[in-house]
Amino acid sequence: MTEATTARPAFERAALLAWLQRYGVYAAVVALVLFNAAFTPNFLAVGNFRTQFVQVAPIVVVSLGMALVIGTEGIDLSVGSVMALSASMIALYLGYGAWPAMLMAILAGAVAGAVGGTLVAVVGVQPIVATLALLVGIRGLANVLLPQLKEIRNPTLTALGSESALGVPLVVLVALALTLVVLFVVRKSTFGRQVVAVGGNRIAAELAGLPVRRILLLVYVVSGVLAAVAGILASSRLQASDPTSLGLFMELSAITAVVVGGTSLTGGRVRVLGTVMGALLMQLLQATLIKHNLPQSWTQMAQAVIILAAVYAARERR
Amino acid sequence: MTLTTVPPETEAARERAGRLFRQHGALIVLGVLLVVGSLTFDSFATVANFGNIATSSSFLAIIAIGMTFVIISGGIDLSVGSIFVLSGVLAAYGSQYGFLVALALPLAVSGLFGLAQGLIIARTGMAPFIVTLAGLLGARGLMLAISDEGAATYLVRDPLFAKLGQGSVLNTGYPVLVAAVLLVAAMVLLQRTGFGQNVYAIGGGEDAAGFMGVPVARTKVAVYLMSGLLAGLAGALNAARLSSGVTILGIGLELDVIAAVVIGGTLLTGGSGALGGTIAGALLLGVIQNLINQVGDLNASFQQVVSGLFLALVVIAHRFLGGARRIE
Q1: What range does the domain containing B242 cover?
Q2: Given A132, A301, A312, which is nearest B126 (Cβ)?
């Protein structure tokens, strides 16, 4: 949007805000990395980098789905509970082997997403309520299916959480691959364009003949599947299925990553790489504060400030 | 779809049924559950058990009163769970300085949180969802900071303050009485004052309300201030009841509160809803939990499944009975 160039000072301010909104998250990540490189001992060690990326991988995977949902002007509060459900399914079906167990977990995520998507797209319930009902219900279901934490002893699954290929942890590779897939879908595929169109103006999309309901439904299914994958990744790292606490607050982390990454809550735009950067920023922030002996409480307060700043910057653009 | 036109009288009847369900659905289901529960379990329909349900529901109900105002105004407040815990810790901490500090400290801080959120929402036009999400994180961070990262638990030192949470008259706990008084006051405020009219008007259409001369910004600030204060009061009362500021409470509480309000028939799109339904919704959640506890061998997490299913059924019913406005 470079048409508005009438008043020069106003333009400069708008341009600065626009730049901040587009690249602020990248700048913040770079600044944090530089700060840590200068002031944090051992930050640049390979082991530390690995730890950071491994920890952020499940959040990135969930956030990718969330970015698509928010792109349609929706929201998915159920992702953390779907991660827990995924963990339960793994524990339940591990007897049949690692692959069937993972397949069942992903299937459960798809079904959960389809239920949410049906409520939103077909019944017409507001996304926040529909997925709130799922958040409550699915967490309970996960707990009913698996009342307590269960250790994972399967070699394939534990390898997924602990092994590397070409020096990159498998968990990170999965997150990276999914990022590329979603990036391709958003930028190059018809479906990606449809998602953005529905989020930008649903009525116009309907009038243009787009299958709006099917698109919405599919977006929630994708979000559910990605949350289930994140559940698999997190469980394989923990070497345990933990339906009680796995994915708690994940919806908040994911929404934060998406919003800080420059995707507008009002829909019509999806920033995939920004979302990944948003997740990285929050992870780095937490790591930085911990490494400098500042407590967890500071992280949350700093997160709050960053969210407000990011959304404020985005607001000026409308 | 063989019928292309619906007779107007059918449409009107459906509309009426929808409105009836939306306004009184929670109450009807509550009544049914009470009857079924009484017939099924001997230990359910006792004065002591009803007292338990009322007391444990009262905290949720107090917060839900504020949330009803927020949602009717077209907003949402995700920060109430964090403010509830923060206030509980502050109340317990303050109780070493006496009754007044124990009550005033949490109310001052929770009021400030509500005020700040209201000002940001009203002045910048940022989405309430995101502003109160930041409030959720901020209040949790502050709570962790003053409780030594959640490790320190403050005990309530003031016996008079503890009584506020534990005492009762005629088998009715003080928190229940507080909730009842607040409910009556809030009903008057919402239904009988200009302020209440303004809240409905803003939720119905903010721009139109502004053109009609409704003080939009001021009303919004007041609504979020109220929600913060009520969450703070509930947190303080809960600390008094437990005799300590427990740091692990309140996670996901905002969702229970929103569920109570929605089950009570208030539309999340704003502009419509009532406090009577909210209270019925809060009690309904309390009764469901109690009934599940009565079935001894059922997993406690079963309550979440039932609550979630219930919420889903209620919103679907709202849509199909035509109670909700169609957005398309």
Answers
A1: 46-287
A2: A312
* Contact call for A141 and B305, based on CB within 8 A: yes
The reply to whether B60 falls in a domain is yes
Which domains does chain A carry?
50-316 (1.10.3470)
Q: Do B299 and A135 touch (CB under 8 A)?
A: no
Complex ipTM tops 0.90: no
pLDDT tens digits for A270-292? Answer: 899 999 999 999 888 888 888 88
pLDDT (tens digit per residue) in B67-87: 999 999 999 998 999 999 999
Interacting residues of B117 by C-beta distance below 8 A, sequence separation 6+: B77, B79, B128, B131, B132, B135, B224, B228
**pTM (2 d.p.):** 0.84
Chain A residues in contact with B144 by the CB 8 A cut-off are 295-297, 300
Residue B32 lies in a domain: no
Residue B10: inside a domain: no
pLDDT of amino acid A25: 85
Mean pLDDT of chain B: 84
The domain total for chain B is: 1
CB contacts, 8 Å: B299 with chain A: 143-144, 147
Chain segment B248-288, per-residue pLDDT in tens: 776 778 888 988 998 888 887 788 888 988 999 999 888 88
Domain assignment present for residue B309? The answer is: no
Of chain B, the percentage scoring pLDDT greater than 90 comes to 30
Residue of A nearest to B327 (CA): A124
Q: Which of B135, B136, B319 sits opposite A123 (nearest CB)?
A: B319
Over chain A, what is the mean pLDDT?
A: 87
Mutation target for A interface from B261, B315, B326: give the one with most A CBs within 10 A: B315
Q: Do A296 and B137 touch (CB under 8 A)?
A: no
Task: State pLDDT tens for residues B82-111.
Answer: 999 999 999 988 888 888 888 999 999 999
